[in-house]
Amino acid sequence: FCLVVNAAGRVFAVTIDDSQLVSDLHDVIKERKMYQFPADDLQLFLAKRDDGKWLSLDEAAAVALDEEGRLQGFEPMNPGRWIKNPKHFGEDFQAKQEEVHVLVVLP
Protein backbone atom coordinates (compact mmCIF):
# COMPACT_ATOMS: atom_id res chain seq x y z
CA PHE A 1 0.00 0.00 0.00
CA CYS A 2 0.93 3.63 -0.49
CA LEU A 3 -0.04 6.58 1.68
CA VAL A 4 -0.08 10.26 0.78
CA VAL A 5 1.55 12.15 3.67
CA ASN A 6 -0.57 14.96 5.15
CA ALA A 7 -3.70 13.75 3.35
CA ALA A 8 -5.76 12.37 6.25
CA GLY A 9 -4.51 8.80 5.90
CA ARG A 10 -5.39 8.36 2.24
CA VAL A 11 -4.12 4.83 1.62
CA PHE A 12 -4.26 3.29 -1.84
CA ALA A 13 -2.95 0.22 -3.61
CA VAL A 14 -0.94 0.07 -6.81
CA THR A 15 0.29 -2.90 -8.77
CA ILE A 16 3.74 -2.85 -10.32
CA ASP A 17 6.04 -5.60 -11.48
CA ASP A 18 9.16 -5.98 -9.36
CA SER A 19 11.31 -5.84 -12.50
CA GLN A 20 10.30 -2.20 -13.09
CA LEU A 21 12.07 0.91 -11.88
CA VAL A 22 11.01 3.24 -9.09
CA SER A 23 10.49 5.88 -11.81
CA ASP A 24 7.81 3.57 -13.22
CA LEU A 25 6.16 3.55 -9.79
CA HIS A 26 6.05 7.36 -9.98
CA ASP A 27 4.14 7.03 -13.27
CA VAL A 28 1.73 4.41 -11.90
CA ILE A 29 0.91 6.54 -8.85
CA LYS A 30 0.40 9.67 -10.96
CA GLU A 31 -1.96 7.81 -13.28
CA ARG A 32 -3.85 6.04 -10.45
CA LYS A 33 -4.41 9.28 -8.54
CA MET A 34 -4.94 11.40 -11.70
CA TYR A 35 -2.50 14.07 -10.55
CA GLN A 36 -2.09 17.02 -12.91
CA PHE A 37 1.64 17.52 -12.41
CA PRO A 38 4.68 15.60 -13.72
CA ALA A 39 5.24 12.19 -12.14
CA ASP A 40 8.84 13.21 -11.41
CA ASP A 41 7.54 15.81 -8.95
CA LEU A 42 6.32 13.07 -6.60
CA GLN A 43 8.67 12.17 -3.77
CA LEU A 44 8.56 8.51 -2.72
CA PHE A 45 9.94 7.15 0.55
CA LEU A 46 10.17 3.66 1.98
CA ALA A 47 7.66 3.35 4.81
CA LYS A 48 10.03 1.49 7.14
CA ARG A 49 10.59 1.99 10.84
CA ASP A 50 14.09 2.19 12.32
CA ASP A 51 13.93 -1.55 13.04
CA GLY A 52 13.36 -2.29 9.34
CA LYS A 53 9.70 -3.28 9.69
CA TRP A 54 7.00 -1.73 7.53
CA LEU A 55 4.75 0.90 9.07
CA SER A 56 1.25 -0.11 10.10
CA LEU A 57 -1.69 1.83 8.68
CA ASP A 58 -2.00 3.79 11.94
CA GLU A 59 1.72 4.54 12.14
CA ALA A 60 1.80 5.73 8.53
CA ALA A 61 -1.28 7.92 9.01
CA ALA A 62 0.56 9.69 11.87
CA VAL A 63 3.57 10.61 9.68
CA ALA A 64 3.79 14.35 8.99
CA LEU A 65 5.99 16.77 7.12
CA ASP A 66 8.24 19.12 9.09
CA GLU A 67 7.86 22.92 9.18
CA GLU A 68 9.70 23.19 5.86
CA GLY A 69 7.46 20.65 4.13
CA ARG A 70 10.00 17.84 4.21
CA LEU A 71 9.68 14.25 5.37
CA GLN A 72 12.29 13.42 7.99
CA GLY A 73 13.52 9.99 9.07
CA PHE A 74 12.53 7.97 5.99
CA GLU A 75 14.73 6.80 3.11
CA PRO A 76 13.91 8.32 -0.29
CA MET A 77 13.39 5.82 -3.09
CA ASN A 78 15.90 6.23 -5.92
CA PRO A 79 14.02 6.57 -9.25
CA GLY A 80 16.90 4.87 -11.08
CA ARG A 81 16.76 1.66 -9.04
CA TRP A 82 14.68 -1.44 -9.63
CA ILE A 83 11.73 -2.05 -7.32
CA LYS A 84 13.33 -5.38 -6.31
CA ASN A 85 16.62 -3.68 -5.36
CA PRO A 86 17.59 -4.81 -1.83
CA LYS A 87 17.59 -1.15 -0.71
CA HIS A 88 13.91 -0.96 -1.64
CA PHE A 89 11.82 -4.14 -1.51
CA GLY A 90 14.24 -6.95 -2.32
CA GLU A 91 13.70 -10.18 -4.22
CA ASP A 92 11.43 -11.89 -1.67
CA PHE A 93 9.04 -9.05 -0.85
CA GLN A 94 5.52 -10.14 0.10
CA ALA A 95 2.93 -7.42 0.68
CA LYS A 96 0.74 -7.88 3.75
CA GLN A 97 -2.52 -6.28 4.74
CA GLU A 98 -2.36 -3.50 7.31
CA GLU A 99 1.14 -2.45 6.16
CA VAL A 100 2.16 0.67 4.25
CA HIS A 101 5.19 0.35 1.98
CA VAL A 102 5.52 3.71 0.24
CA LEU A 103 5.02 7.21 1.64
CA VAL A 104 4.12 9.72 -1.07
CA VAL A 105 4.88 13.43 -0.71
CA LEU A 106 3.12 15.72 -3.17
CA PRO A 107 4.80 18.80 -4.68
3D architecture notes:
It is a single chain. The chain is α+β, with helices and mostly antiparallel strands. It has a single domain, classed as Phosphatidylinositol 3-kinase Catalytic Subunit, Chain A, domain 1 (Ubiquitin-like (UB roll)). Helices cover 16% and strands 16% of the residues. The strands form 2 sheets. The chain has a 4-stranded mixed beta sheet with strand order 2-1-6-3. The relative contact order is 0.31. The mean pLDDT is 92. This is Crinkler effector protein N-terminal domain-containing protein. Keywords: Secreted. It comes from Phytophthora sojae (strain P6497) (Soybean stem and root rot agent). Residues 1-105 form the Crinkler effector protein N-terminal domain.
Write the layout of secondary structure elements.
Elements: E1 2-4, E2 11-12, H1 22-33, E3 43-46, E4 55-56, H2 57-61, E5 99-100, E6 102-105
Parallel strand pairs: 1-6
Antiparallel strand pairs: 1-2, 3-6, 4-5
How many helical stretches? 2
By CATH, the superfamily comes out as Phosphatidylinositol 3-kinase Catalytic Subunit, Chain A, domain 1
Number of domains: 1
User: Might you state the CATH topology name?
Assistant: Ubiquitin-like (UB roll)
Largest sheet: 4 strands, mixed
Strand content: 15-25%
Mean pLDDT: 92
Query: Number of DSSP strands?
Result: 6
Helix content: 10-25%
- In whole angstroms, how far apart are the ends? 20 Å
CATH C-level name: Alpha Beta
Protein name: Crinkler effector protein N-terminal domain-containing protein
Subcellular location: Host cell; Secreted
Main location: host cell
Pfam families: Crinkler
